[in-house]
Every structure is written in structure tokens, then in C-alpha cells.
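Re: that backbone. C-alpha cells:
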């Protein structure tokens, strides 16, 4: 049973406190945000409402947060299920505030502190034993809505039942990946991550590489996020990283690599000048006249970015296998390879030497780095990928002694085994902790449940009578391969299973259709082939909609254009909270032709009260603008407000639980006797709507708000959504609107300006207004 969480109190309305309050509100929790006085609290909330990226999943969630000062608001502690302290990062103010909290506290209420490294146990010195039993550390990563990791730090006094309760709430209600950390300076992720960032800076200076070169080397090429090293420092803020590093340096006199935490000279000069990163509009990078310049750390002058000229790097970019990619980078005889060689050797050695100091479990360390810093693999997973014996040899090259844990892993054959166990220091191998409700397609494939597949998608048996279609191409671009698996999936599910789930293990659900293929076919004049491609997409969408078994589509990340249309076709959408849906085809001079325009017309018509005269123009305008303005939701909740999700669609706050939730939804619908929706005709507004839209478009063009080509695209869209030249109130079949969709799409695809837009976005990733 998931514990109750109806009300929370957040103490401190600074950046972290206000954003934690916002995330609690996103989870449907009533929040009291307190600070020294109401005005300070209100200012903090106001900053959170204006934060970018957005702290709230929708504007309506802001109403769940009320503000007050400590003097008049602390009484609410006695009404709360959870109190989170997030004031200034100093021990004494935190202890003083916790004394006031205890005076209003009632037994059973969780109390936690959000800190990035202040000793947790010291905060409750002098508090009652009962209060201390309910107290622990909760280290949210900034921004808390988007960063998955939550480190939980119990003290020796924390009741195990309280810890378990917080972990359960964090996973289920807040959508977090929970890692248990020890009460040591910087905990897990910041200890390892800050060491890695500081080490990269020092080695950059040693090997005389540039800021841009290091970012090229320490990003996706080695399984790290695109922000790599210096972009990460700019995003987090050099002042924040410097504070964490300084705290680690002061608090860790016995750390074998303590000096690494000491910021080198170029960075201290940057701090003195206030070059902190994005918050000061310049750091390691600065935008000037539309160009991004990189800082030269020798001269502290900004220059055009200098990319790596390396055959090894170019070769590695084309490799999908992470081991081969790293091998290619490391075998080159050049400074970049030597930099990476030493960075990996020293950072992996450091991580191995910190267990069991910072955590008893290597899996906790790996998860912390994946969830908190965006690494594809944690340090121990990376060791296994490279080969533990090989890493051990590297350490000798750099005069480093292999830590006991690394020596043990070398003797035993690695940190992880294929049987699902991991090395427990001094205790052999034990099972990797299982996260209830978390499953992946990869798990099912490893268990031999893949039934069919191609380069774009696979059919995977998910258990409980449910079939899955896994999308697994690059960005899950919708081409012939995915269409074939979707068609086969709905047919096979209808015959052999009780339901179908369409999902992905990737970060993004789908970026839509294959624009390059469309352009090639258009350039060659293969219009019959293009017509067939669009028809086949429409046929798959129709088959999903009419499937006799429930079809649950489970998007996460970006679900754009054709990817969004795939969602619109499902019986139910089970969306991750962080899903960004949008019918964005107008950005490339096209309109949705995979049933998206038809479905939005259907949804607009469904909002009209039956048998009651009503003006349908406002409803049509809502649906029309969603497509014509290429609106993309900033969350699944906002997608519901845009009409891209129905009220009956579901949202899962923890993305790692999405596939499990989608399977459960499919099973539930099947057990309830699911039947597909009837093929009812769609009521359209016809000529009246076209004329009304034309008047609006005329004014927009006259005011130079849209271009001639924007006008053409919008007219084609209006023609389809209004049902063509028919009387107002006509009822038309879905097939009729699908035909109009397809005709408009192909006509626009043949327009030179649409093709210019398509080429531009393929080349630059940005839309073209022409």
C-alpha cells in the first residue's frame, strides 16, 4: 500500500525550496511554502512560476501552493504528512529551525532536510529521540521536476520504517529514482561527479586541450550527456560546483585524491569575475551575435569553438557499440586519447575506492551517476564494459594502486554477472536490488520473449496476455520497418493476445515521419509511392483504433508529428509525466496526415453538446490552433489541456514504471470487456468554417504575422478540419477526412517552400519561416 501524502510543508523559498514545492504540487500534494516572512515566500513562488524549464507541469498546479512566513505558518507542521527543510546551507540555522519545527510537530510526520552535503546526524543533535526517528536527509537534484535522482540519507537514529515510507512516496508519488547514501560529504553523486568534473579540468590543462575539445570527448562519445563537462558546469553554475568542491576539500582531509577538489587557477579567476555560466550569461561559453564562443582558459578570452581534428573521433562517432567506440578513442596516439585514458583510469579508481565509504552497494553508485548526472553507465558498469583487468593495468601506468574492491572484482571476473547479481564488497555476489513495478523491453528480450522484429521495432511478449511493440530505431523515426511491426502487432494481438502496448525503452517515443525519405521520393517524382506510404500509415492508425483488443500507447519524452498521431490512435494513452506531445507538421510546411487532423476534428466535434444548438467555431478554432501553431506540450498534463490527451488517458509520474503501468492498463481494459469505439460519423462545420478561418488568416497575412506559405498551409489545414465544401452540420465518415488529409499533405509536399523547410530542419534542426 502506497503511504498517504496529502499535505507537505516546505521550509525555505529559495531556488531549491520553491522548486521542491512545485514538484510536490505536480504530484497533487497541497503545499505550504514558508520562509522568513510571507513576502519572501511569495517571491520564491513567483520565481518558480517563471522558471525555465518550467517548474510546474501546468499553471493549475500553482494553486496547490500557499505561502506564509515561519511565525504564522509553522503551525501547519502539525497538519502535514511530510516537512522538508530547504533553507540556507549552514548547519546552525538548520538546527535552530528544526528546534522550532519540533515544537509544532506531531509523531508520524516525516521531517527531512534537503542538503547537498551538511552532516545529517548533526542536525538533530539535541532533538528528542522520537523526532530523530522520523528524520532523514533527502537530497533532491536541481531542477527537481526533471532530474530523476533522489538520494535518501538515514541517520543512525532514523526508523527503518520511516526510511521505507519516504522511499515509497518518492518512487510512487514524486516519480523519483531512489538511492540510499551514507552520511558522508557530498553523498554519492556529487562526490563522484564533482571529482570527475574537477579532474577533467585539470587534465585538460595538462594535455593542452580546449574547452570545446574536452566537451566533444566527454559527452555522448563516452556515454555521458551532451552537456559533457563545461556545458554542465555552465548549466549548474560555477559558483555551485565551487561550493560543493570546497566543502568536499574541507571535509575530506583523508581523501586520497583531495587535491582534485581544489579548483585550478583559471576557474578561480572566473569566479572572481562573476563568469558563473548561464545565470550570468557567460561562463565557459558565451553567445555573441548569434554565435557560441568558447573561453580560452589561458587568456580568459572568448574565441570561436575549436573542434577536434581526429580520425579516431570521426571513426568513433559512427560506431553504435559503446565498447568499440571507447576502444577506438583510446587506441589513438594523440593528446585526446591520452586525456581520456587518464580521465577514465583516475575516475574509475576513485569511485572504486569510495565503496563502502559512501555506499555499501555498487549498484547505488551506478544508479546515482546515471540518474543524477545522466551517465549511460555508472563507474562500475563502465569498468565491466572496458574490462576490469584492463582498468587495473591502466592504474599501474599512472602510478595508482588498485583499490581493494577493484582487485576483488578482477579476481572474481567483474562487478556484475549475467545472472543478475553484483559484487558485494567482501561478501561475494548477491542479487541486484529489484525495483518493484519497473520493467523494460530489454528485460523481456533477455528472457527470450522477442517474437519478431526488424531494425525499427520488435514484437515482445510482455506477460499477462499482453503483446508489446517496442520502437527502437534512432529517434524512432516512423518508416516502413516500424509500420510493418505495428501492422503485424495489431493483427497478432487480435488473434493471440488480450491487449497491445506500444512503447519504447528510449528517452523519446518518436520524432515522427522520415522527412529525408519523403524528400527523396518527392525529388524523384514518385508520387504513387508517396501516396501509398501515407495510405499505409493511415491504414495502420485505423487498424489500431478499430482493434478488437485494447491498444495502449505509452509515450515518454518527445512524441511529435507522426509519433503524436500514433498516440492519438490508441484506445488509451499511458503517458509519462514528462511527455512532450505535438502535431508539428506545419513547421515543415505540411499537415498531419496519419489521422492526426481527422482525430482533432473528431475531438472538436465531440465537445459539442448533442441535440443543442451551439456555435462550433470556438471549438474548431481550439483544435485548428493546436495544429496550425504547432503547439507542443511541456508535460503530459499540458497535453491534456491542449486536447492531445483525453480525460480518460492516464499519466505515470515515474517514467521507469511506464511500461509496467501500460501493461496493467491493457490488462484492466481487457478484463472489463473492452470493445473498440463505434465508427460514428464526424460532425463538421463545412463552408462556414472555411470562410471564418479565411477571414482570420486574411487579417494575419495583412498584418504580416504569417507568410504566404504559412497562409497556404493554414488554408489546406482548415479545408480538411472543416470537412471541405459541405454545409454546416454535415456528418462525414472518417475515411472521407482521411482522404482530404492525404490529398492536402501530398499537395503541400510538392510545394518548393515546404521542401525548403524540410531541408532546413534536417540540416539545422531548426524550423524555417519562408
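Recovered sequence:
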Amino acid at each position: 500500500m502506497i503511504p498517504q501524502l496529502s499535505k507537505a510543508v516546505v521550509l525555505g523559498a529559495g531556488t531549491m525550496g520553491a522548486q521542491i514545492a512545485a514538484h510536490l504540487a505536480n504530484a497533487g500534494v497541497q503545499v505550504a511554502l514558508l520562509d522568513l516572512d510571507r513576502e519572501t515566500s511569495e517571491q520564491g513562488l513567483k520565481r518558480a512560476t517563471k522558471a525555465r524549464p518550467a517548474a510546474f507541469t501546468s499553471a493549475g498546479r500553482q494553486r496547490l501552493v500557499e505561502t506564509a512566513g515561519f511565525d504564522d505558518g509553522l503551525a501547519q507542521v502539525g497538519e502535514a504528512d511530510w516537512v522538508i527543510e530547504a533553507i540556507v546551507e549552514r548547519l546552525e540555522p538548520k538546527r535552530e529551525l528544526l528546534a522550532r519545527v519540533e515544537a509544532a510537530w506531531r509523531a508520524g510526520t516525516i521531517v527531512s532536510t534537503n542538503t547537498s552535503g551538511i552532516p545529517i546526524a548533526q542536525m538533530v543533535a539535541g532533538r528528542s529521540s522520537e523526532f530523530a526517528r522520523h528524520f532523514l536527509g533527502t537530497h533532491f537534484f536541481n531542477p527537481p521536476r526533471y532530474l530523476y535522482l533522489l538520494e535518501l540519507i538515514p541517520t543512525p537514529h532514523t526508523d527503518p520504517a520511516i526510511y521505507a515510507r519516504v522511499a515509497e512516496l518518492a518512487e510512487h508519488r514524486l516519480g523519483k529514482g531512489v538511492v540510499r547514501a551514507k552520511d558522508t560529504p557530498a553523498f554519492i553523486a556529487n562526490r563522484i561527479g564533482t571529482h570527475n568534473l574537477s579532474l577533467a579540468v585539470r587534465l585538460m590543462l595538462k594535455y593542452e586541450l580546449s574547452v570545446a575539445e574536452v566537451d566533444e570527448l566527454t559527452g555522448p562519445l563516452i556515454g555521458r550527456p551532451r552537456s559533457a563537462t563545461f556545458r554542465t558546469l555552465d548549466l549548474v553554475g560555477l559558483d555551485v560546483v565551487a561550493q560543493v568542491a570546497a566543502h568536499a576539500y574541507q571535509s575530506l582531509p583523508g581523501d586520497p585524491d583531495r587535491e582534485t577538489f581544489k579548483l585550478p587557477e583559471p576557474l578561480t579567476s572566473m569566479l572572481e569575475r562573476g563568469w558563473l555560466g548561464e545565470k550570468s550569461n557567460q561562463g565557459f561559453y558565451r553567445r555573441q551575435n548569434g554565435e557560441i564562443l568558447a573561453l580560452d582558459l589561458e587568456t580568459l578570452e572568448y574565441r570561436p569553438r575549436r573542434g577536434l581534428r581526429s580520425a579516431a573521433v570521426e571513426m568513433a562517432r559512427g560506431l553504435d557499440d559503446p565498447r568499440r567506440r571507447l576502444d577506438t578513442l583510446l587506441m589513438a596516439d594523440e593528446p585526446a586519447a591520452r586525456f581520456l585514458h587518464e580521465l577514465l583510469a583516475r575516475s574509475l579508481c576513485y569511485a572504486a575506492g569510495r565503496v563502502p565509504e559512501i555506499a555499501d552497494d555498487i549498484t547505488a553508485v551506478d544508479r546515482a551517476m546515471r540518474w543524477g548526472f545522466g551517465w549511460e553507465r555508472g563507474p562500475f558498469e563502465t569498468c565491466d564494459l572496458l574490462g576490469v583487468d584492463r582498468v587495473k593495468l591502466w592504474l599501474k601506468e599512472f602510478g595508482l594502486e588498485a583499490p581493494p574492491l577493484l582487485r576483488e572484482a578482477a579476481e572474481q571476473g567483474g562487478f556484475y554477472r549475467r545472472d543478475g547479481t553484483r559484487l558485494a564488497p567482501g561478501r561475494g555476489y548477491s542479487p541486484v536490488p529489484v525495483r518493484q513495478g519497473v520493467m523494460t523491453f530489454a528485460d523481456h528480450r533477455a528472457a527470450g520473449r522477442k517474437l519478431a522484429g526488424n531494425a525499427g521495432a520488435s514484437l515482445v511478449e510482455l506477460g499477462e496476455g499482453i503483446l508489446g511493440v517496442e520502437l527502437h530505431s534512432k529517434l524512432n523515426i516512423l518508416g516502413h520497418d516500424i509500420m510493418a511491426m505495428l501492422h503485424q502487432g495489431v493483427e497478432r494481438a487480435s488473434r493471440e493476445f488480450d491487449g497491445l502496448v506500444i512503447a519504447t525503452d528510449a528517452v523519446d517515443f518518436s520524432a515522427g515521419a522520415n522527412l529525408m525519405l519523403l524528400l527523396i521520393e518527392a525529388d524523384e517524382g514518385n508520387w504513387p509511392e508517396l501516396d501509398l506510404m501515407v495510405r499505409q500509415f493511415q491504414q495502420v492508425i485505423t487498424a489500431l483504433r478499430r482493434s478488437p483488443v485494447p491498444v495502449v500507447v505509452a509515450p515518454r519524452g518527445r512524441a511529435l508529428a507522426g509519433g503524436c498521431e500514433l498516440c492519438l490512435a490508441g484506445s488509451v494513452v499511458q503517458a509519462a509525466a514528462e511527455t512532450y506531445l505535438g502535431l508539428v507538421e506545419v513547421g515543415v510546411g505540411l499537415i498531419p496526415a496519419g489521422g492526426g487532423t481527422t482525430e482533432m476534428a473528431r475531438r472538436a466535434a465531440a465537445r459539442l453538446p448533442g441535440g443543442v444548438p451551439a456555435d462550433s467555431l470556438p471549438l474548431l478554432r481550439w483544435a485548428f490552433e493546436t495544429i496550425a501553431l504547432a503547439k507542443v506540450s511541456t508535460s503530459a498534463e499540458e497535453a491534456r489541456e491542449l486536447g492531445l490527451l483525453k480525460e480518460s488517458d492516464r499519466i505515470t509520474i515515474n517514467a521507469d514504471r511506464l511500461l509496467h503501468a501500460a501493461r496493467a492498463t491493457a490488462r484492466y481494459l481487457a478484463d472489463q470487456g473492452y470493445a473498440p469505439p463505434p465508427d460514428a460519423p464526424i460532425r463538421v462545420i463545412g463552408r462556414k468554417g472555411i470562410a471564418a478561418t479565411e477571414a482570420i488568416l486574411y487579417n494575419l497575412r495583412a498584418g504580416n504575422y504569417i507568410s504566404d506559405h504559412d497562409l497556404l498551409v493554414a488554408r489546406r489545414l482548415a479545408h480538411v478540419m472543416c470537412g471541405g465544401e459541405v454545409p454546416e452540420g454535415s456528418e462525414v465518415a472518417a475515411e472521407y477526412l482521411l482522404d482530404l488529409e492525404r490529398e492536402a499533405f501530398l499537395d503541400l509536399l510538392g510545394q518548393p517552400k515546404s521542401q525548403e523547410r524540410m531541408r532546413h530542419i534536417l540540416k539545422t534542426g531548426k524550423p524555417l519561416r519562408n
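The longest helix spans residues 189-207. The longest strand covers residues 457-463.
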